[in-house]
């Protein structure tokens, strides 16, 4: 006879595997459980069976078949869907991971494999003392970008272990919270007494002062460039399709590392994913500025972004400036602390003082009543069908976000020959300072594609004013916007760097820089010029930047990178609904661009500001977007998962909501609402 208690019980056997380091203890345990047992109770039961006295607080159940964590310990096994055939592994949530930083240095640290990637990246950035973690994400290198590297590795040894920086002892990497004071808006900068540099989070957390100082210098300072041979062996995208491969491996920010197949000791790339660098402050952002600079530098050297010969020489000169190794670490960090950017508290007090004193009322009234406009003679260049160009001078008037042109100044009171609305257009610089060529290429959206218009200015000052107005108008802003004058100054500053007039005889080599020009330019220019020619031209360009501090040189490099036409574009191969051929979709911080894959020419631009809604049909993996004026587009992504593009769009919209007035605490729920989708 079977007793009533045994008959009424619904117990069943569940095989559990424990991931521990004790070789003399079993790793598999068979437990009798019931469906109403909660996950926390299962943990307690298992730990009692293991009989090892250790801290099990970081352990959780990983469900191997379903690729998910059982983190809700109050849920019952029935509610989780766990049955007798489930393979549950009791393993640590924090595991070792290798990260390749933008400066090509590899760090090894303990990361949460159970948190969403968005949260994991936030913790990583706290360890590395990088503010604004929402701008970064983790990238898994695609097979296509590794092929060239694998061929090289056949005859080479594994990288030496001393090249890897171990950061596995910090509280964050062990699952403990970071010091929130390091990320406070009103924080007082803490300086390292030895180097004079702002103390990073690693200094605060690590007890070993000497190793800490070394860690910070590796992350915050530039290091010697790689050899031309190493550069030639790295993956260099040749086509738009190649560039699309670079963006195929972004991890899903709404899922954990483990859920995406990342294993302990795997290597991922930590990169700036979103090209909107908010609130860069040399006082607090030594590591962040250096890593942005390094990502920009490698993008230039590996030709991930196109630039002209003149621009390449400027980038080379600025690199040479940052390599001036006679200046000590303290010089650089003192420069950074002496920047004109004041502490935000001081700025707030200054603004309050101006407000209390009443400010300059006449200027305020003038700004409100006066409608800014530009009026000048410019040359209009229109491409002809027979490859000839018609160049003619007209009287141009720029008002609000539109350009009108007339036959001459006297006829400006009448109807214009043509009025061009620049809102949503593409603005491309066409400049050669040496040849006195100051052109602006406008690609204006029309019903059947893009209308090309070229404007030719007479001098630098005229070009800067009109170019700045065009850039703002493309974003829907006028010259009344407060960013107009800074934009003009930024353009003039960049032109000034290009305008070197010293001959090579007077150009002297920067002190203590081992001038190997092949290390400062992309392989294309190494092949075009002999080493001596290249050295002379870089030194000529260096004359205009030789007085810059090292931090200023990095910031100028970043600004020059941002001024390139292709800056901030992430490419994907897509197939638009109703189209019979593949196109390239460029995703930027404020727009989407449809690009012809064969020619590389933009076909259509859609601004995020005109977007009404977007969604994904997860069954057919199709992204659908609706814009103003009943414009509707839909496409499937061929070079990556459509979730990546969906997350890009939502991520940029999320970043556009940031404000200096808000606390730096991120609205993580809003990010996932905009990027997660309903898969």
UniProtKB/TrEMBL annotation:
Residues 379-475 form the PH domain. This is FERM1 protein. The keyword Ribonucleoprotein does not apply. One of its GO terms (biological process) is cell-matrix adhesion. It is found in: Cell junction; Cell projection. GO terms for cellular component: cell projection; focal adhesion. The lineage of its organism: Eukaryota, Metazoa, Chordata, Craniata, Vertebrata. InterPro entries: Band_41_domain, FERM_2, FERM_central, FERM_CS, Kindlin/fermitin, Kindlin_2_N, PH-like_dom_sf, PH_domain. Keywords: Cell adhesion, Cell junction, Cell projection. One of its GO terms (molecular function) is integrin binding. Belongs to the kindlin family. The keyword Coiled coil does not apply. Its main location: other. Pfam families: FERM_M, Kindlin_2_N.
């Amino acid at each position: 006879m079977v007793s009533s208690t045994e008959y009424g019980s619904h117990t069943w056997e569940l095989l559990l595997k424990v991931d521990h380091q004790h070789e003399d203890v079993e790793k598999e345990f068979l437990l009798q459980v019931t469906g109403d047992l909660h996950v926390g109770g299962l943990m307690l039961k298992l730990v009692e069976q293991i009989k090892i006295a250790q801290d099990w607080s970081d352990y959780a159940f990983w469900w191997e078949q379903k690729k998910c964590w059982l983190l809700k310990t109050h849920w019952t096994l029935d509610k989780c869907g766990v049955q007798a055939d489930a393979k549950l592994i009791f393993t640590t949530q924090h595991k070792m991971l290798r990260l390749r930083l933008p400066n090509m240095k590899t760090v090894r640290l303990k990361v949460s494999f159970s948190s969403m990637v968005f949260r994991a990246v936030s913790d990583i950035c706290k360890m590395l003392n990088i503010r604004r973690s929402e701008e970064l994400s983790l990238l898994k290198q695609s097979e296509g970008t590794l092929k060239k590297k694998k061929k090289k590795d056949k005859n080479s040894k594994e990288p030496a272990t001393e090249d890897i920086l171990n950061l596995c002892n910090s509280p964050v990497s062990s699952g403990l919270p970071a010091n929130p004071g390091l990320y406070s808006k009103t924080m007082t900068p803490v300086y390292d007494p030895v180097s004079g540099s702002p103390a990073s989070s690693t200094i605060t957390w690590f007890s070993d002062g000497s190793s800490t100082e070394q860690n910070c210098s590796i992350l915050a300072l530039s290091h010697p460039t790689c050899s031309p041979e190493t550069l030639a062996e790295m993956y260099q995208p040749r086509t738009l399709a190649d560039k699309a491969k670079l963006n195929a491996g972004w991890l899903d920010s709404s899922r954990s590392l483990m859920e995406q197949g990342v294993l302990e000791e795997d290597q991922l790339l930590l990169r700036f994913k979103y090209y909107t660098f908010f609130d860069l402050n040399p006082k607090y952002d030594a590591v962040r500025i250096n890593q942005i600079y390094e990502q920009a530098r490698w993008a230039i050297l590996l030709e991930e972004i196109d630039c002209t010969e003149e621009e390449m020489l400027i980038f080379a000169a600025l690199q040479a400036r940052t390599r001036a190794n006679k200046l000590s670490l303290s010089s650089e960090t003192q420069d950074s602390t002496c920047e004109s950017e004041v502490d935000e508290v001081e700025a707030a007090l200054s603004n309050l003082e101006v407000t209390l004193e009443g400010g300059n009322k006449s200027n305020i009234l003038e700004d409100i009543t006066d409608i800014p406009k530009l009026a000048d003679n410019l040359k209009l260049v229109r491409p002809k069908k027979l490859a000839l160009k018609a160049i003619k001078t007209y009287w141009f008037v720029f008002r609000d976000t539109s350009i009108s042109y007339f036959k001459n100044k006297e006829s400006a009171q009448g109807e214009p020959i043509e009025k061009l609305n620049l809102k949503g257009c593409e603005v491309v610089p066409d400049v050669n300072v040496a040849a006195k060529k100051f052109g602006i290429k406008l690609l204006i959206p029309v019903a059947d594609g893009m209308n090309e218009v070229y404007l030719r200015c007479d001098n630098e000052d005229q070009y800067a004013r009109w170019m700045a107005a065009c850039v703002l108008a493309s974003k829907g802003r006028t010259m009344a916007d407060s960013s107009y004058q800074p934009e003009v100054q930024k353009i003039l500053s960049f032109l000034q760097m290009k305008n070197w007039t010293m001959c090579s005889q007077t150009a002297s080599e920067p002190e203590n820089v081992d001038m190997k020009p092949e290390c400062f330019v992309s392989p294309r220019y190494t092949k075009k010029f002999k080493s001596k020619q290249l050295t002379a031209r870089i030194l000529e360009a260096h004359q205009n930047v030789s007085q810059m501090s090292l931090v200023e040189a990095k910031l100028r490099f970043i600004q020059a990178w941002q001024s390139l036409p292709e800056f901030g574009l992430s490419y994907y191969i897509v197939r638009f609904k109703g189209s019979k051929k593949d196109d390239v979709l460029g995703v930027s911080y404020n727009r989407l661009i449809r690009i012809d894959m064969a020619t590389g020419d933009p076909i259509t631009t859609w601004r995020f500001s005109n977007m009404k809604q977007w969604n994904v049909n997860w069954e057919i993996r199709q992204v659908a977007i609706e814009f103003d004026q009943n414009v509707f587009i839909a496409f499937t992504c061929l070079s990556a998962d459509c979730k990546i593009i969906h997350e890009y769009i939502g991520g940029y919209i999320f970043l556009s909501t940031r404000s200096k007035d808000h606390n730096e605490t991120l609205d993580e729920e809003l990010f996932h609402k905009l990027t997660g989708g309903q898969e």
